[in-house]
Design goal:
The protein has 295 residues and is an alpha/beta fold. The protein has 9 helices and 10 strands.
């Protein structure tokens, strides 16, 4: 492993079909673009702006995620797909509707290509990537989430003047239903990003190892999550299920990023303010890992 620099410290198929969700094993990038993968999860965000403004923006955008952590899973050993469908049905909108800020911060300067958003939730990251010019395959275990994501895409398309840097976002996103315990990518990509892929029903190592294996030489892996030692005092779900969280060092070790094939660009715990469901305030930290595959 070569380290360049470290900043700031250290689911139902019928339902999916009715949404015109496309099941793709791979996709062809538009002319003049590179390939990429985005493993998006519903969670944190970040913008490049002045420190005070950036902190304020992060606080506002994170409230829907940090405010109540994850809804509790139902008992009875139901599948991850059924559990997440149930969770999404508890609210008309579970997440903030804005792109994860660490994705914006770390991927905002990359040249657009194809993207795979794994754990895409209600689609904010995929839509943001499409607006930047990426062609996105967005994957999630929940058909309910994908229905909402598709609706959000249609709403964006209906807005006058919504364009990606290379043209209209129409046709840039394919929504894919998948069991993330068995999912395997069908191609290699220039960008692989996973944003807050935390679930009681899923061992994070399974999809993230597959993700790391899908980065092609010269490509980027971006993983962001809640740091297990810097959680908000509210949200008992996160505190009681710490095995679904990880540190940066665990990511490097478990994903095999400590060899000569990888160069670590960013490995840090990035603090930010968070607001709880009853207005509580706290400072929490996100694990941010960005690495380049060398060979």
């Amino acid at each position: 492993m070569k380290k360049a620099h470290s900043l700031e410290g250290s689911p139902d198929a019928e339902q999916a079909a009715s949404l015109h969700i496309k099941f793709l094993q791979s996709s062809t990038p538009p002319p003049g673009t590179r390939s990429g993968v985005a493993f998006g999860g519903p969670a944190g965000q970040c913008w490049c702006m002045s420190p005070d403004r950036e902190q304020q923006q992060e606080t506002q955008q994170q409230e829907a995620h940090d405010g109540g952590a994850l809804p509790e899973a139902s008992d009875g050993g139901i599948s991850a797909a059924a559990a997440w469908d149930e969770r999404y049905r508890t609210k008309a909108q579970l997440w903030s509707g804005k792109p994860n800020p660490q994705l914006v911060r770390e991927a905002g300067g990359l040249r657009p290509g194809t993207a795979l958003d794994l754990g895409c939730g209600e689609g904010a990251d995929a839509i943001w990537l499409a607006r930047q010019g990426w062609s996105v395959t967005a994957v999630d275990v929940s058909a309910v989430a994908l229905e909402r994501a598709h609706s959000h895409e249609q709403a964006e398309l209906a807005r006058e003047g919504v364009q990606a840097s290379g043209g209209d976002i129409v046709g840039r996103i394919s929504w894919q239903l998948a069991d993330l315990t068995q999912w395997q990518p069908g191609a290699s990509y220039d960008l692989v990003t996973s944003q807050f892929l935390h679930s009681q029903e899923l061992d994070w190592r399974l999809p993230l190892r597959a993700a790391a294996g899908a980065v092609k030489p010269g490509g980027t892996l971006l993983v962001v999550g809640h740091h297990p030692d810097h959680l908000p005092p509210w949200g008992a779900n996160l505190h009681q299920h710490r095995n679904m969280l990880y540190t940066g060092e665990q990511l490097v070790r478990e994903l095999g990023l400590d060899g000569e094939d990888w160069q670590i660009e960013v490995l840090t715990n990035r603090e930010r303010p968070a607001t709880g469901p009853d207005g509580q305030e706290a400072v929490i930290a996100d694990v941010v890992l960005r690495a380049t595959r060398l060979a």
